[in-house]
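#random but structural
TW: two for the price of one
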Amino acid sequence: MRLLRQYPFVLSFLLLLVFCSVMVIRGLQARQTKRTELREAMIILQTRGYTNEAVRIYGRLIQEIRDVPNKSLLDDFQRTLLIIDPASKQHSNPIWSYHWVVSNEMERRSESTLARALKLAAD
């Protein structure tokens, strides 16, 4: 109680900092869950024959592809790899298209990671 009277602003600040940290973590988890939900919805719709709806979800997933963490990209890549045959070309299948977009994005990111590692090695 004595601490509360001596340092009310510091304690308020620390309480606010903890609250904001928890909210940021919850927001990140909610965004990840939403992305997984969208991916699974696209897969279900495509496999059940609702191609137009699957294409709409595919568009939403593609818009956010640059902001997705590497772990989520890897999850998406592995999930779509189980469903499609990457050797065959199925341009009308949104799952196949999404798989290749994710694959290309992972390759682009690995190249930038490699370039960054080479730069660090040169310094």
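TW: number two ↓
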Amino acid sequence: MSESSQKIKFYNGEDIPLELHKVRVVQKLHLVTIERRLEALRESGFNTFRLDTKDVFLDMLTDSGTNAMSDRQMGAMMMADDAYAGSQSFVRYQKAVEEVLGKKYLLPVHQGRAAENIISNAFVRKGSVVPMNYHFTTAMAHITQYGGRIEELLYDEAYVIRSQHPFKGNMNLEKLEACVKKHGPANIPFIRMEASTNLIGGQPFSIENLRGVRAIAEKYGIRLVLDASLLGENAWLVKQREEEFKEKSMAEIIKTMTGLADLVYFSARKLSSSRGGGICTNDEKTFKELEPLIPLFEGFLTYGGMSVREIEAIAVGLYETLDESMICQSPAFIEYLVNALDSKGIPVVTPPGVLGCHVDAMSICSHIPQKEYPAGAFAAAFYLISGVRGMERGSVSNQRDEYGNETYADMELLRLAIPRRVFTLSQIKYVEDRMTWLYDNRQLIGGLRFVYEPPVLRFFMGGLEPIDDWAEKLVEKFKQDFGDSL
């Protein structure tokens, strides 16, 4: 067994993920009572995004900016060069991008959605169409803000919740070519590939598929843009699932992927276990088109809205992305939780992907009509009975159309994010236990309705309320079964 496989067979026959790190700094957690959790839900408008962490036991909302940083990253932050312009911290960041991602030109931004704003501002115009394997909330918001629209071009297999297809994030090449022919290359500013598709369960794409997308992009002279925020995990699953790359190093796989894209952008909050982000390319003309927008929106060209300490951490984190024993930690824990829930008959997205365990709220809450936001209700219910904060990835995360009509999501998922090197196995087992109880009592969960709805990205700050008194009934049943237990 190689060290990087992170699995070890125990004498009792169990096959569980093994942490290949030790804990040296800890943060105290609190598990408040279920009565307080109900109060907290009311105060937050039954939106887990609005909960205060003082009321949260395990925070599985996102992996964005919540991955554990390494001792090397923390040490590098002490060496930061605080210059406004010409900082040597940026020089080190630029070198890391070139060596790890294979891109010469780098524009720093404060996070991934800032990169989306810059790229959309530069290339998207009214009437533009952007084909992609699947949308991400902020990517779609920025494209539509500048007058464009998106087309999602997945294969049908991607929408099957329980499946063994290894690359459900693949773009449908036939649909892509048809899209280009229908709208014309001049109306398509770029093709976007996301590694890995966040909203359908963190599912990866294969390099074989990316090569096919690249061939079509070259055929019609269209840019290929890669959202590389979860590039490391996508590369890890390529190594596990794509025969050609089983013996390749992470460095080779990552450079193969980025080498197929004209433009790469990423959120370092995901990619390198730190904060910030970047846009990078080998095309000087593209670089010059984007460069003037950085001082306008982000800050100067050598800090891009980040502190130089964050920049130092990103540089080290990029190199650590090549470390298999680090990058496989999150996928291994996700796989463990997905398999544990699946074995109990609880519907989850399979095969296990990246970012987190995605629970199928549409199926579990089939008694709740989609107009009452089953994934949002399920996220609130799970927090209520466990203190674990997950995130709704369903219709609440969608946005209304131009006429104000609801657009329902293809999937209604509760995402339980599992950041790198953050949770222990006992905490994962607690999640499994409480999810099992909620699944057995799922008929008690009711729907939600909006009482405050922002016009854009409503899942961040929107407020909802229960359709009836289902939350109180859930509390009552929990106390019957668990007594005074939290």
